[in-house]
Automatic annotation (TrEMBL):
It comes from Daphoenositta chrysoptera (varied sittella). The chain crosses the membrane at residues 195-215, 227-246. GO terms for biological process: protein ubiquitination. One of its GO terms (cellular component) is Cul4-RING E3 ubiquitin ligase complex. Keywords: Membrane, Transmembrane, Transmembrane helix. This is DCA17 factor. PANTHER family: DDB1- AND CUL4-ASSOCIATED FACTOR 17. It holds the Pfam family DCAF17.
Length: 523
């Protein structure tokens, strides 16, 4: 310390930002992520080349919903799993048709965490957590469908668990019941139902039970319509558009009566059984006896409320129907409206525009209208460091060059004709944005734009530079696109998958894979 020779790292880079930047550019060859980042960079360049095409390699139809998760297509209520990674999709497993009592209500894909020691070899492979109609929580092998673990959820307290979601992705899972409703006869008899929802909380890999709690009218109020948990926050929604936020972790710690482990024998409120086994299920061991401290509340039309950006901001729509399509971006710290924080595209359309924080964690905001996508950013107001403003980062505009929509036209004979109506902004005969998504591994913003003339609709999937919005690639979808149907489009590295739901529960799936068009193949 007193003038000795500097160590070998003294002449190196010590600034954290520079270290991260150099690592991202591949300066450290022994970094485990360097090769992966280089490969994804190469894939992006190859994919965006003009000679690279996306070919429709497989199409299937089904009378039951079709789901997609990380290279796997699930059909027949998750009884059939098809790998979409191979050159042509192939069946990974096919189970016999299940009884109605074994129907799967919801599912989540579970992937192995990095750098952790797990108790079972099967934990290191991807698995699927499913919730059945009879309140069983099953963990299935994603490759074989084998049941790895099973937990019975519903004891005497609740019979209708229906929804799976992440509190912390790939770490903490929430199982939510349907809203409890008394039969009409019970209501007529004057019986009161105070418990609205049950939430069961699990740590995953290894699967462990944290606790179960009830959402009660006596604690949260009579007008509760729904609840959700996300990133350690309990979100309670009310019929009048009010949204209230509570610290979920603090609730678990404060109101936990007794912890339980799966497989543990218990004697609880006069019941004797095994935690997670039939017929006892899980004990309701978190009893909220008093209203928890309120973190934040806001009033928004249809309970629409989002938090994001840096510093933290939230997006709401003023709670009046006349304000539908108007979005206010405000500071979470003091509720101050950001400069230029009122975003209104003034769309005249059947389907409303939508807005959300960019999933790339950049703090930007994506606002999507029928013919315009605006990517917005938060920045400090000049000479006012404590005030933020909304600025436009870039825009993507639909191709409507050939569209002429004059209110007044003149015929060849010179007669003036006035239109009695104006076309909608999302008129099917004009190119309209339907889907906007983000591919995080390739850092690409993808958009689906559709034009429908008569019964024939044509769609194309475009890839844009996520940083500047520049169009890099356009892929025409071969199948006809009916704007009245429900559609999902997944872009996953070198794969594009389109799922379509037609009337009368008819489903179709179209798979496209990247091919380097070196010769004669026009597909």
């Amino acid at each position: 310390a007193g003038g000795g020779r500097a160590g070998p790292r003294a002449c190196g880079v010590h600034n954290v930002c520079r270290l991260l930047s150099r690592r991202a550019h591949g300066f450290y060859a022994r970094d485990a992520g360097v090769a992966h980042r280089k490969n994804l960079g190469l894939l992006r360049k190859i994919m965006c080349q003009e000679s690279t095409k996306f070919k429709n390699v497989w199409t299937t139809h089904s009378a039951s919903p079709i789901a997609y998760e990380r290279g796997r297509i699930y059909m027949d209520n998750y009884q059939c799993c098809i790998s979409s990674i191979a050159q042509e999709p192939r069946i990974l497993y096919q189970k016999s048709k299940c009884a109605k009592s074994e129907k799967i209500e919801d599912a989540l894909l579970l992937e192995c965490p990095l750098g952790e020691m797990l108790p079972s070899p099967s934990d290191y492979k991807a698995s699927l957590i499913v919730l059945t109609v009879q309140n069983w929580l099953l963990r299935l092998s994603a490759d074989s469908g084998e049941v790895l673990e099973k937990v019975y959820l519903a004891g005497s307290c609740c019979k209708f668990f229906r929804y799976l979601s992440w509190d912390t992705p790939q770490e903490v899972m929430i199982v939510k019941s349907a809203q409890n409703k008394l039969p009409a006869a019970a209501r007529q008899a004057g019986i009161q139902q105070t418990v609205l929802f049950y939430l069961a909380v699990f740590q995953v890999l290894p699967l462990s039970f944290i606790g179960m709690l009830e959402i009660n009218k006596k604690i949260f109020g009579n007008s509760v319509t729904d609840v959700a948990v996300s990133n350690g926050i309990l979100i309670v929604m009310y019929s009048m558009g009010l949204v209230r936020l509570y610290n979920f972790k603090a609730i678990l710690e404060q109101f936990m009566e007794q912890p339980f482990d799966l497989g543990q024998e218990f004697n609880w409120n006069g019941q004797v059984g095994v935690v997670g086994k039939y017929p006892f299920g899980l004990p309701c061991n978190i009893k909220i006896t008093d209203t928890p401290p309120l973190l934040f509340e806001a009033s928004s039309l249809e309970n629409a409320f989002q938090i994001g950006g840096y510093p933290w901001h939230y997006i709401i729509t003023p709670n009046k129907k006349k304000h539908k399509g108007v979005f206010h971006i405000c500071s979470l710290k003091d509720n101050a409206l950001a400069k230029n924080g009122i975003q209104d595209m003034k769309c005249c359309s059947l389907e409303p525009d939508w807005i959300y924080f960019h999933p790339d964690m950049s703090g930007r905001i994506i606002h999507v209208g029928p013919n315009l996508i605006k990517v917005l950013k938060l920045k400090e107001v000049k000479n006012h460091a404590d005030q933020m403003e909304i600025a436009e980062d870039f825009t993507i505009v639909a191709n409507r060059e050939n569209c002429v929509n004059n209110a007044v036209t003149v015929t060849a004979s010179g007669r003036v004709v006035k239109k009695r109506f104006t076309s909608l902004d999302d008129d099917p005969e004009q190119e309209t944005f339907k889907i906007v998504d983000y591919e995080d591994e390739l850092d690409l913003l993808s958009t689906v734009a559709v034009t429908q003339i008569g019964a024939d609709g044509r769609a194309h999937l475009d890839f844009h530079c996520n940083e500047h919005g520049i169009l890099l690639k356009s892929i025409p979808l071969k199948e006809s696109w009916d704007v009245t149907y429900s559609h999902e489009v997944y872009f996953d590295k070198d794969l594009v998958l389109h799922i379509e739901q037609k009337p009368n529960r008819r489903f179709s799936c179209y798979v496209y894979q990247m091919v380097c068009d070196t010769a004669r193949d026009d597909d």
